[in-house]
Design brief:
By secondary structure, the chain is mostly helical. It has eight helices and no strands. It has two domains: 95 residues, no CATH class; 55 residues, no CATH class. The longest helix has 19 residues. It starts with a helix and ends with a helix.
Length: 164
């Protein structure tokens, strides 16, 4: 039996693996129309479904469609937009302010991965000023959504650092 923590780690890795496959510099070209999506790409970018062989230009996101879905409350689309802006991939210019905006939208909609992304951004100061108070807040939000011993350790560590 796979432990819950291991299962969640594998699920997260599968999500990142599918995304990293799309980050290949040869996957998308300036001339590509990044505003239309094929159905299986839509399943990934808007619904979080991961499948085998979802790489390359077949996976290009429809940015307009993703933004429309995110603005209507689709937390997966908002989370994926945060990833695109954080990484500067798929024809989207890297913009940490936009990444944080989309992550926050997803996190406020109870998207566990978005809360972890925000916590990490503030903990490490990657794309935003390092802010352990904000990091602690977002780790607590992630923990409230789904208990994880690793996150509990992060929370305890940050609480101790902030007491100093």
């Amino acid at each position: 039996m796979v432990q819950k923590k291991s299962y969640l780690a594998l699920k997260y890795v599968a999500s990142i693996t599918a995304l990293s496959c799309t980050l290949n510099s040869h996957s998308v070209h300036a001339s590509d129309n990044v505003f239309t999506m094929k159905e299986f790409a839509r399943d990934y970018w808007l619904h979080g479904k991961v499948g085998e062989g979802l790489c390359g230009a077949r996976m290009k996101p429809g940015i307009k469609e993703m933004k429309a879905a995110a603005n209507k409350g689709n937390t997966i689309a908002a989370f994926r937009l945060g990833q695109l802006y954080e990484d500067g991939s798929w024809g989207v210019m890297q913009d940490f302010d936009e990444a944080i905006r989309w992550y926050e939208m997803a996190a406020r909609g109870k998207n566990h991965f978005a809360t972890l992304s925000l916590a990490t951004i503030y903990e490490l100061g990657r794309g935003a000023e390092k802010d352990l108070t904000k990091a602690l807040y977002w780790f607590r939000q992630a923990q409230a959504l789904q208990y994880d011993a690793f996150i509990a350790g992060k929370i305890k560590k940050l609480e101790n650092e902030l007491k100093k």
